Amino acid sequence: MFSFFRKKPAATPAPAPEPAQVQAPTPTLPPATPPATPAPTAAPAAPASTPAPAQPAAGGLIGSALVQAMDIPVAPPVAPERQGWMTRLTAGLRKTGSNISQVFTGAQIDDALYEELETALLMADTGVKATEHLLEEVKRRVKASGATRPVQAKNILVDSLTQLLKPLEKPLVIGQFQPTVIMVAGVNGAGKTTSIGKLTKHLAGEGASVLLAAADTFRAAAREQLAIWADRNMVEIVSQAGGDPAAVSFDAVTAGRARGKDVVLVDTAGRLPTQLHLMEELRKIKRVVQKADATAPHEVLLVIDGNTGQNALAQVRAFDAALQLTGLIVTKLDGTAKGGVLAAIAQEKPVPVYFIGVGEQLEDLETFDAREFALALLS
């Protein structure tokens, strides 16, 4: 299984310098011109009917060579261990991708295609700025490459979207701190507690010892829900019935340090960014966690629901202003036709996306890869 996180590698001694290599002298080639007096037994010329090796037509190339010459990217194959995930991701993004892919079913690249593409991107909640950026890139590269077929424009869009999303790629690193304290926030219904449970499973599966902090003391049954995940994953949990969220978080970080845990995951109460008094409670949790560990929290993650489209971007802005986010988990991309919101985030508020989810199963939450996402979206 592909790792959901990367531990900080241990320091290794610098390799010894390799001995200098002596370049072998270049052999002298025989002269390319035939000798002045040809041998009497020279081979006869090949018959005119003998087929010559296949050569590209003058002024053009064939197959993938044509694609390369026209600056139309050919995506490398997906790693075998990611094929299953790509299948699920493609199926999950079908509602978004089908609307965009239909733009490229015509016979030529013209103004009508660009107008339809603009509409499709906006309908996918790509956002005005990201849509303008992608359109400009596609037009520029189509003109530079001389592409004439819509499928070529589609390939260019895949590459342009990949480049736009690339800054969002970042691995979740644990091991630099003992423990790594991860604070998780999000609005009600975004899938926050479930995502914590899935992340716990994968962290524990990779050998990390995890301690959960049930600091969501506002929502009914939140503590019980997290306790179920703790039982399933056979990890410890710190909770208090009706306790103060900041106090629970403090106790969990303190316990994590005393017990030598690798990770402490703090589940906070769901809230809307417009609920200022509750947002202040999040700030309080962060301040109190820092009293238990001056370097913590080491990661502040926001879980956003892909169904909410542009509202997700507003949530990123608000929670980042309050907590200084370090990463995102985007869930429920399979239930929406608004998967383009990641492009809007990349263009306007590029907070790294650690994980994306396209279903309720454990394996439906995976690390984010820009190229995989672009290919799945526009397959």
From TrEMBL:
GO BP: SRP-dependent cotranslational protein targeting to membrane
Pro residues composition bias: residue spans: 27-38
UniProt-listed Enzyme Commission number(s): 3.6.5.4
CC terms in the record's Gene Ontology section: cytoplasm; plasma membrane
Residues reported to bind GTP: 186-193, 267-271, 331-334
InterPro entries: AAA+_ATPase, P-loop_NTPase, Signal_recog_particl_SRP54_hlx, SR_rcpt_FtsY, SRP54_GTPase_dom, SRP54_N_sf
Enzyme class label: hydrolase
Topology in membrane: Peripheral membrane protein
Domain of life: Bacteria
Keyword annotations: Cell membrane, Cytoplasm, GTP-binding, Hydrolase, Membrane, Nucleotide-binding, Receptor
Reaction catalysis annotation: GTP + H2O = GDP + phosphate + H(+)
One Pfam family matching this protein: SRP54
Subcellular location per the Swiss-Prot or TrEMBL entry: Cell membrane; Cytoplasm
Family from the record: Belongs to the GTP-binding SRP family. FtsY subfamily.
Record's protein name: Signal recognition particle receptor FtsY
